[in-house]
Design a protein that fits this description.
The chain has 406 residues and is mostly helical. Helix content is 81%, strand content 0%.
Amino acid sequence: MDAGATTAQAKFNFIFVADIFSFSRFRDMTQLIRWFSLAILLSSELPAQRLYNVSQDTRAQAAVAASALVRDSSVFDTAVANLAEVQRLQQENILIGARLQTRADVNSWSEWSDVLATVARVRDQLQSVSNASPDEWKKALTGIADRQKEVNESLSALKAKLGASNPEGETKAIGAWFEKIGRLKPVADYLLKISANDKPSQADLKAANEASATLTNLATLYRTFATHIPERPSTIYLGFQLQLLEADEQHYKNLMGIRQRRDEETAGINKLAAKVIRAVGEFTLQGSVVESLRAQAQLVKTSVGTAKQKERDKLDAMLTALLGASAVAARGHMPSDLADQRGSLEIRAHMLRRSRLAASVYEDLLANGAHRLAGYYSGGIRPSNLAALLHALTTAGVIPAILTSK
């Protein structure tokens, strides 16, 4: 019922009640009954039953209680907790593997050339040594710029269609979800950082291509959403679709954040590896690692004055190089391994989030219907009210008769 109909009905009910107690307007019982019958007929627009039914009211209240039991998020909470436990176990396995690999690498270091070989192997695996060709890098940056343009255009078209739509029902929640769409500043910052690289490696080229693919997915997401929105959607449907869109958008941003973290961790390993190689080359370290350390320690003991400090600095540099090489060996595979693990778990978590949103819509529909039925069956004229009304009608017919007889 719209606002106009509700107001008109309220005015009629008020006039009807006033007429009942304005006895001077009724000269006989027939006119009073005629007004009462008219009120019953016109009350069909009211969102409630005419006569109260206690059995139906009881069943409706039971339906409301049952709809509350449906709203149980423990299933999804348990699934998310299980996923977190899986993540912990997988990360623990990655760390165990890294520890075993580091121990094997360190045990194989007989000479300083072995140390350099380990560091070089890690850098090759990270694709940080081989530079990307200028043509490939230019093509990758052009692709990013084109995809960014597609994302902006599709997002603008989506917002224009949403703005032109006329959803049925309360739109306050719709506006709140609408404001969450298109917040891509973290993505833009990551793309800006990629584009500012003037010495790109093959790893940088791979990251740029992955970012371009993510932008393509975002543009497709926005276009698909705009295509499936009807001209006059219901608020429940539109709110659900906006929440799904925000979840999908956040999923792509999470994936890009995982890649950004991987790139930052890889950059730290590359810096450490370069520092180790520079230290080994600066001090021309050769031969056996153990023997060179013993010889250098002996020089520190026998030297005096400034020479003693110089030899001590060299010994510190040798130990620092060994510690750095150990760290490089331990962390070499971890950025990519952890990124793959986080990415796979993010996909599974995203599916859980989508399923939870879908379930919440069904829960809202069931709860809304149950409450509407409860409101309908809780209304109506009750037997006690009808008896009181009939008593009032009887009294209203007696008083005018007494007045008329006088």
